[in-house]
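Hey, I was hoping to borrow your eyes for a little while. A protein chain has come my way and I'm curious about its shape. Take your time with it, there's no hurry, and the full record follows here:
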Amino acid sequence: MSFASSRLETVKEHLKPTMSAHKSPITCHVLIASLGTPGQNIDVKIEKLDQSGAFSTLSTSQTNSDGRCPTLLPEGFKTEKGIYRVTFETKAFFSKIDQECFYPYVQIVFELANPEQHYHIPLLISPYSYTTYRGS
């Protein structure tokens, strides 16, 4: 198979409909920068800061084979303005591939100001560093 046809097959896979047409209003994506691969099967938790100042769990999920969590929040979940936190269980992932990890988990806290918008939280990680930004 040529590089071009291999790339075409990859693009086709990304365009296939998923089992559910539901897409969470908040999604995430994990890339393992040190390996150049998606972060597969990483446990993810999303929480919202409540009025008492404590975080309450909204949902838990796991990244798919492409390192994405398209159904991070359950179908029909209404996002509201507020402070949210996404936690990625990175040590468990790196342990599965027999690598040490400096960060046992990564927590990203962000403010959702426009509930009608889609929020995407990408995470690029290696055993000794990570970076994130607001994606599209």
Remarks:
- The two ends are 32 Å apart (CA to CA).
